[in-house]
Every structure is written in structure tokens, then in C-alpha cells.
Amino acid sequence: MNGNPLKTPSLQDDERFALMKFRRSVSDILKPEHDDHFLLRWLRARQWNPDNAEKMLRESMKWRAKWNLDDLESWEAPAVFKDYIPHGSTGFDKDGSVVIFIPFNGIDIWGLLHSASKHDIIKNTIRVLERYMKLAYEQSKIHGPDARKFLVIFDMDNFSMKQYAYRPAAELVITAFQMYSNHYPEILKCCLIINAPKIFSFGFNIIKKFLDEYTLSKISIYKHNKHKWLPAILERVDAASLPVYFGGELTDKDGNPKCLEKICWGGKIPKKFYISEEDTFNNTSTYKTTVVKKGSKLKLHFEVEDSGVFLKWEFKTEMHDIKFGVRSVNQQTGEKVNEVPLKRIAANEDEETGFITCQANHKYTVVFDNSYSYFKNKKLTYSVVVTRPLDEVEKSASKIEEKIFDQNENDISCEIKAE
Q1: Mind listing the pLDDT tens digit for each residue in 143-196?
Q2: How many CA atoms lie within 13 A of 297 on its CB side?
Q3: Spatial CA neighbour of 165 closest among 407, 389, 410, 362
Q4: How far is CA 287 from the centre of its chain?
């Protein structure tokens, strides 16, 4: 690019006036690298209102100090993050913007929450994002200000909502999106979500509540149809910079099509990384423990009067599996539906979680069935509730950062006292 790629952008008179006013009002907190392009991110995020932009930036600068972002690189993160946080970059798009790949199914939320504190998980998320921000900033010196924005490709292949029915996981995801929205405005150039299954639409309808119109306008969602999403990628990324796994030409030196040298794909976290065996069954009064005797069943009944609620379950067994299912009856018409067909669940190997959307004026019956067993009783720990999870989770997530810091500071003070 000839000349200065970061020259002052062309603006309308009212926009230029807003920029001048904004710069004067925040001059006491600006750093040398905070040029006009940086300030414009905050102005655009607040519809060119200098006062609102100032409030947003000042709050974000306090947030940065709170997380001590200037010393992030000196922080020694838990070892589990290195191989089990799926993300990576193989280079840049045709305009010089950083291309970030996120194989979303590789995120083991349950494992992460048992292998590291929420504080450290969020701190690591910030550090990863800050590293990409620094790389994008260097790119902008060559390719111009648009190179400060990211092209993000989420691969949702084999995505399941199952682990996000676990409330701490949902809170953590929503906290991350709130953090992005509040402290990293206008950094998304384009987001391509590929291989999205049907259930993804439900999750996205929840998440998009936390995204502004600018961000939503940059997102394109593609189902399991490579013939549609691959052209969209190649329109923006050269095949030489795209892994063979995604339809490009790039491989590792050993020929691996997933480019493991540049992209971490995550996966199930081994229990050797767990720092605590504590789980949801010890953290809420909604959990109960019982014994489903051999040849018998446990039935739980729920009458739902209003629509827009969810029937949510989490359970585990000791030593043996158990059958599980959910059926409903329309209390007006008498129609019966198997919402979740009865089948054997190996809940002794992995905690089972899930939910369904309820309809008004229906009665739901949850069944834990041990009638097929003639010799073994089954010890069952379970939580089955009818709830409005979005309202509850959003309320919790909005305060989770503060709670995380309070807990972290309490932990530190306890350690000092112990010493």
C-alpha cells in the first residue's frame, strides 16, 4: 500500500466534530497507539455520541486495569489451556486481516471448569484475544485500518447443546460475549459459522441477544453444505492459507490437513488436569439423591401453564446405567408425545444433561426406569426443574465477573493468612 496506510479517515463534518470532542474528553487516558481509528471504534459503537463513547471507553480502561492486561504475558496460565482451548490462525485474508479458526466442538466446558478457575478461564480468553489484537495492529501498519478487524470462522461440526445446559457453562459463555461487546467494539470484519446443525439456531437465538446490530450484520451462518460455505471462505481467503480440512491447500509439514501446528482443536480434557472433583451436584439445593430399586421406576410430574419455559435435567448414577425419557400430555386435547424417547443412558460414565422447550397447558413426566434390571438397584443423583434459563443465566452472567474477582481475592487473602 502506497503512502500512509493509517492516515486520518474521511469523515462527515458532524462525525469529525464528534471525533474531536471525544478525543479532547478522553485525552487524559489515551496512550500513544490510540489513534483516530481506535477512537472511531468507540464512537461507532455508541452511534457517534461522544459522551456515551467516553463513558464506554473509560469503563473499559478501568476494566483493563482491573485485569492487569499490561502484564498478561508474564502470567503463567494453567497447563490445560495450551492443548484444550480450540483456536488458531493460519495467516491472513486477502486484505491482510487476521483469520481466526475456532473448532467449537473441541471446547470441553465441563472439563475446563474442573481444570481451572473461572477467573483463569476468562483471563486466558482475554490474553488470546489481546494477542490477536496486537497481530492485527501490526498488520494495519502495512494494510490499513481495516486489517485491525478479524475474519473469524467457527466450525460447528458435531456441535451439541448438551454441555451448555450446565448452568456454569452457559454463564461463562454469556460472560465472554458480554466482555467482547463491552470492551472490544467494532473489531469483527466477518464471521462465518459453518456446519451449523439445527439445534445451533436455538443457542444462537440466546447469544444474539448480547450482540449489537453491527456484529450481527457481520455474521453469516451455513449448514452442513460445503458447496455453500467454501466459496464464501475462498472469496476472502486464498486457498494457500486455508487448511485442506476446510477445502484449501495448506497442510502441516507432515501433511496433516487440520494444520495442528497452527490450530489447536481442543477435545475432551483428561481428568489428570482436574483441580477439583466438585461438580454441580454439590452446589445447588435442587439436586436430590435416591435409589431406584430393581424392577421399578421413578416418575416426576410437571404441569406447565405458560409457554416459553424449559424442562431441564442433569443426573448421574453410580456404577450402572439407567433408562431415561420424557413424555408429555396436552391437557386440553389429551394428545400424548414422547418428547425424549426412553433409552438406556450410561450416566455412570458421564453426567447427563439436557432440556426441552415446554408448551403451555401440558403435563410432562420424566421417567428414570430401572424396570429392566432384576438384580441391581441404581443410586441416582438428579436435578429436574422447569425454569426460564435465559432470564436466570443472563442475570447471573451480568454479575459473574464481579463474583469471580471477589472469589479470587478471597482465595488470595486466605492463602496469605495460611502462610
Answers
A1: 999 999 999 999 999 988 778 777 788 888 888 988 999 999 999 999 999 999
A2: 15
A3: 389
A4: 26
